[in-house]
Amino acid sequence: MMPDITLISGSTLGSAEYVAEHLEEKLVQAGFSTKMLHGAELDELTQEGIWLIVTSTHGAGEIPDNLQPLFEQIEQQNADLSKIQFGAIGLGSKEYDTFCGAIKTADRILQDHGAKRIGDRLEIDITEHEIPEDPAEIWLEEWIILLNKD
Ligand SMILES: Cc1cc2nc3c(=O)[nH]c(=O)nc-3n(C[C@H](O)[C@H](O)[C@H](O)COP(=O)(O)O)c2cc1C
Question: How far is the CA of 14 from the centre of ligand 1 (A)?
Fold first, then answer.
């Protein structure tokens, strides 16, 4: 059966994965069924339902290597994502000009392909938040309220 929410993380050193896992726990506690993908390819995903993207940024504003295939495939295959709703969380550091570049790119690509974002994009500055799970958890509470309205 299709899970209520598919969490998709993009990470190089693990922080975004930990945030995604923490949010998965909270979603399960709130009664949602979930599936977790650390990194993803398009053919692993059902092209309908709700995705929660949690990704850090690497290189100069780039999507981490484990998440690049998904976004490349969405563009190359011109995927129809009009049955997808998604939440968007980025981790990054304000020390870089390309702060949270990965989630900005991911958000744009998903919307370009017809997906609808639920709620605001969250951009977590790790220089400000030593524990990125904290702002993510606060954002999630609001996101759950928006999900339940649909
Ligand atoms: C080599 C390198 C490049 C980075 N480039 C960026 C960047 O362009 N923009 C940004 O916001 N953060 C950048 N960061 C910060 C990471 O996104 C941040 O440390 C994040 O918490 C890493 O999460 P992860 O452990 O999931 O990979 C960079 C970090 C490293 C080590």
Answer: 11
